[in-house]
Amino acid sequence: MRVANLAHQPQVISMDTEVSQEPPQHGGNIFSVFITSFSAAIVVAGGFGIVLQAGILAVARLGPGLAFLWVWSAINAALTLWLALWTFARSWHVERRLKAGLEVDEPKLSILANFRGS
């Protein structure tokens, strides 16, 4: 069995140490930010609404009646709509901060605060 002696073989080590003079680009154009935010809102709020509505329908079949179904379906619709708007606003806010080169901040529950950027 032959063992190669690696100590005598030349090693080529190169490093790219040049730094780009252009500032890094984060985020995309307004259309891609809109599509990203809209998609996030659909996924998050849609999943929440569907799962909650399935639970409401299951409980309504056990006997509370039609009034229970309508009231809780309306509550579910309102919660789902708020979550969709909040998710869209939050995603929009985060994409704008990344495009400006800022770090992501702590989430706020206010939809308007996310749109204002405060």
What does this protein look like?
The structure is a single chain. The protein is mostly helical. It has one domain. It is 61% helix and 0% strand. It has helices spanning 30-61, 66-99, 111-116. Helix 1 (30-61) packs antiparallel against helix 2 (66-99). It is elongated.
Keywords summarizing the entry:
3 helices, 118 residues, mainly alpha
Number of strands: 0
Structural class: mainly alpha
Rg (C-alpha, Å):
26 Å
| Helical percentage | 55-70%
Secondary-structure element series: HHH
Shape: elongated
Helix and strand arrangement:
Elements: H1 30-61, H2 66-99, H3 111-116
Helix pairs in contact: 1-2
What is this structure, in a nutshell?
Helix content is 61%, strand content 0%.
